[in-house]
Amino acid sequence: QGPEAETFTDAETGIVFNRWGVPADSGRTQGGFTFGMALPSDALSVDANEFIGYLECASKDATSTGWCGVSMGGPMTNSLLLAAYPHEDEVFTTLRYASGYAMPDVYSGNAKLTQVTSRVNSTHYSLIFRCQNCLQWDHEGRTGGASTSGGFLVLGWVQAFDAPGNPTCPDQITIGQHDNGMGIFGAVLNADAANPSYTAWAAKATKTPT
Ligand code: HEM
């Protein structure tokens, strides 16, 4: 996976993303991992504090299970973390923050995640979501952020095989240490990352799974 983004248009919603991935044949994660981002129209000159995200993660051996995550700052620690997992027909999410390499806390800041679309099949699950207040974070006074105006982000990814416990209560899930790859990558934003249609796309994020 290189830092250069690939421009990708989601067929169902028409949302245009910059995306980066770890291919299934890379030997770094079974099934592959993809993360994408669409940003407000002025995000390449003014730091944005929200984005529309695209996640596509893999389940082990066609079991429709597992969880995956993104770190908005790169490392697991001191960054806003997003974990996602399939459960029945839905993809659930939980925003987290970790000060050490142990089970992350529920994020205490005011970030808000709403879904546009989600898909689950036996081998993969994917989610398009709006994440508001997700690029500057404050967890009990510990602050940080990711700057979009510089055109370059440092992100982290992780995948795990086992399904979380307590799946219908995202803030009370139990998980073990991830075991299907992880990494930190540089993500260069190209001119397609920021789009005048952002506001219209963001308005499609109306779902929260229950
Ligand atoms: C890396 C433990 C949950 C994201 C690591 C490492 C450990 C660890 C020990 C470093 C491993 C190495 O360098 O070889 C755990 C445990 C967890 C957990 C025990 C839960 C019980 C999560 C969650 C996320 C996450 C929920 C994101 C949503 C990452 C990322 C890395 C990482 C992106 C790679 C970057 C880095 O080394 O900081 N984790 N983790 N982890 N973890 Fe976790």
Structure, explained:
This protein is mainly beta. It contains 1 helix and 14 strands. The protein has one helix spanning 198-202, and strands spanning 6-9, 16-22, 33-38, 50-58, 67-71, 80-87, 90-97, 105-106, 112-120, 124-132, 136-139, 142-145, 152-160, 182-188. It has a 6-stranded antiparallel sheet with strand order 1-2-3-4-10-9. The chain has a 6-stranded antiparallel sheet with strand order 8-7-6-5-13-14, with no helix packed on it. Strands 11-12 form a two-stranded antiparallel ribbon. A hairpin with an 8-residue loop joins strand 5 and strand 6 (80-87). The longest helix has 5 residues, at 198-202. The N and C termini lie far apart (34 Å). The protein binds protoporphyrin IX containing FE (HEM). Protoporphyrin IX containing FE is lined by residues 69, 71, 75-77, 81-83, 96, 101-104, 156-158, 175-178, 182, 184.
Show the helix and strand layout.
Elements: E1 6-9, E2 16-22, E3 33-38, E4 50-58, E5 67-71, E6 80-87, E7 90-97, E8 105-106, E9 112-120, E10 124-132, E11 136-139, E12 142-145, E13 152-160, E14 182-188, H1 198-202
Antiparallel strand pairs: 1-2, 2-3, 3-4, 4-10, 5-6, 5-13, 6-7, 7-8, 9-10, 11-12, 13-14
The chain binds protoporphyrin IX containing FE.
